[in-house]
Amino acid sequence: MTLILRYMQNPDIPQVVTIDHLAFTPPWSARSYAYEVNESNYSHMLVLEHFDVPPPPSGIKRLVQSINGGREIESRIVGYGGLWYIMDEAHISTIAIHPELRGRGWGEILLAGMIRRSITLGAHYIVLEVRVSNTVAQQLYQKYDFKTVAIKRKYYHNDGEDAYDMRLNLDDGGEYARSFAPRYAHLLETHGFTDLYTETLPPRNRSQSDSSSA
Questions:
Q1: CATH topology of domain 2-200
Q2: Is the pLDDT of residue 213 over 90?
Q3: Cβ 83 vs Cβ 117: under 8 Å
Q4: Catalytic residue among 7, 33, 141, 184
Q5: Quick one: three-class SS letters along 4-52?
Q6: pLDDT of 108-138, one tens digit each?
Q7: What secondary structure letter does DSSP report for 169?
Q8: pTM metric for this prediction
Q9: What is the Cα–Cα distance from 12 to 38, expressed in whole angstroms?
């Protein structure tokens, strides 16, 4: 098993939308994700991709796959997140793991990845909204020192539920970043995932950079 944390790309959107429909009401549209991935200069969308390497095939399947260059490796998107960075504020816009795959600590990978990306970008603080009834998510945010600073009344339009406005202060002379580094290293060691996100430009920016340097 291999897990990769990386930027969201266009081919990921159908799987992301499927998870979104299972996790949230109302969900985002595919068009919204396409905008975040391709057009928004403020978005740092990410996915957690799971690679499942199948056992070696036998008989004719082994022969066919050797002719084709080796075994097939299947993968799926198991979770995703959205991070907006504007001025000195990072805003976690969405985060979800496929409902069938929760309880494995993968949501923590997404959250920690967005925190590390925010630190890399130079954010002074991170904000997010969470349903007042979603105590599981609140406990995860509190684990990483998010504090509730306000209640947004009737924030969720579909049912009128309130949201907690939670914030993480990063404007502390680098103290949080220094304490966060070993926690992130431990998370990497525990789950064995590959981080292709937190210190990398979005694909759209990499393309622009390559074009300007050509």
A1: Aminopeptidase (3.40.630)
A2: no
A3: yes
A4: 141
A5: EEEECCHHHHHHHHHHHHHHCCCCCCHHHHHHHHHCCCCECCEEEEEEE
A6: 999 999 999 999 999 999 999 999 999 999 9
A7: E
A8: 0.88
A9: 13
199 is catalytic: no
C-alpha to C-alpha distance for 164 and 159, rounded to whole angstroms? 15
From the candidates 129, 144, 156, 161, give the one annotated as an active-site residue: 129
Residues 76 and 50: beta-carbon distance below 8 Å: yes
Domain ranges of the chain: 2-200
> In 3D, which of 115, 184, 105, 181 has the Cα closest to residue 146?
115
For the chain, give the percent of residues with pLDDT over 70. 86
β-strand partners of 165:
129, 150
Characterize 155-193 residue by residue with b for buried, 16 or more Cβ atoms within 10 angstroms of its Cβ, and e for exposed.
bbeeeeeebbebbbebeeeeebbeebeeebeebeeebeb
List 130's β-bridge partners, or say none. 164
- What is the mean pLDDT of the segment spanning 20-41? 95
Q: Which of 178, 172, 66 is nearest to 116 (CA)?
A: 178
7's tokens: 């930027």
Reading across the β-sheet that carries 74-86, which strands appear in turn?
A: 147-152, 163-169, 125-131, 89-97, 74-86, 46-52, 2-7, 194-195
> Is 129 known to be catalytic?
yes
The two tokens of residue 87 are: 């001025």
What letter would DSSP give residue 181?
A: H
CB distance 74 to 50 below 8 Å: no
Is residue 21 within 8 A of residue 30, CB to CB? The reply is: no
